[in-house]
Design brief:
Radius of gyration: 17 Å
Largest sheet: 7 strands, mixed
Strand order of the largest sheet: 3-2-1-4-7-13-14
Number of strands: 14
Oligomer: single chain
Number of helices: 6
CATH architecture of the largest domain: 3-Layer(aba) Sandwich
Bound molecules: arabinose-5-phosphate
Structural class: alpha/beta
CATH topology of the largest domain: Rossmann fold
Distance between the termini: 33 Å
CATH class of the largest domain: Alpha Beta
Order of helices and strands: HEHEHEEEEHEEHEEHEEEE
Strand content: 15-25%
Length: 235
């Protein structure tokens, strides 16, 4: 395992052991870090006899949770989960984030925003001074009908490049999200005001949601290159 995988895994284990208690409803983000979280949740539930209910944010994490024996529920039944645990693509010093590398940003933002507490798990390579640096795009979920005008309007907001995300092996053509939409990756460079940019993007008709998660994180677990886990709480 690379140091980054080890770091993600150690941080995931720490988050689950510190935050998860019997009887909780837990929102599950998506992605590779969340796979470690779900494995640990399932182990803990099994070995400690915990009753947990989970709200998944994608087919990926929902199927994994079911396979490992966790029970699923929905926001219809539990509109205010006790806790959400999620990964991120970049995190800045205010604990704001870019998410959506796995195209699950919309359901993640919904579940994360509904939870009483949001914990984010990352390895330290994801920490940045400014969101958008290192050529990281902002993922934006868009209704296919509106893709072209939305793309033009995002350019007019200052993005130097905007691409329709393409699927990799296993599917030709664009990525289609779990909601049946497209993802645009917009390259803005280092972002001065993530909250303002998020608002401007969401004001474009046809935009469903953006991967800018501002003012949402309560606690951050960071796995380091040296094998430690640091926690940062919202100040
Ligand atoms: C899923 O759409 C994303 O928001 C993920 O949370 C983010 O991309 C982190 O994924 P990894 O844990 O796979 O790096």
């Amino acid at each position: 395992m690379s140091w980054r995988e080890e770091a993600k895994r150690s941080a995931a284990l720490r988050a689950v052991s510190e935050l998860v208690e019997d009887g909780m409803v837990v929102g599950l983000g998506s992605g590779t870090t969340m796979a470690y979280v779900v494995e640990e949740l399932a182990r803990k539930a099994r070995e400690e006899g915990l009753e947990l209910l989970c709200i998944p944010t994608s087919y990926q994490i929902g199927y994994l949770a079911l396979e490992l024996g966790l029970r699923l529920t929905s926001l219809d039944e539990h509109p205010e989960p006790d806790l959400a645990i999620d990964g991120a693509d970049q995190v800045d010093g205010r604990l704001d984030m870019i998410k959506g590398g796995g195209a699950a940003l919309t359901r993640e933002k919904i579940v994360d925003s509904c939870a009483r507490r949001l914990a984010i798990v990352v390895d330290e390579a994801k920490l940045v001074g400014r969101l958008g640096e290192k050529n990281m795009p902002v993922p934006i979920e868009v209704i296919p009908f509106a893709a072209r005008p939305v793309l033009n309007k995002i350019r007019a907001l200052g993005a130097r490049e905007v691409e329709v995300r393409q699927a990799g092996a296993g599917k030709v053509g664009p990525v289609i999200t779990d909601n049946g939409n497209l993802v645009l990756d917009a390259y803005f460079g280092p972002i001065e005001d993530p909250r303002a940019l998020d608002g401007a993007l969401r004001a474009i008709p046809g935009v469903i949601e953006t991967g800018l998660f501002v003012g949402m994180t309560d606690i951050l677990y960071v796995g380091t290159r040296e094998g430690q886990v640091r926690t940062v709480r919202r100040g």
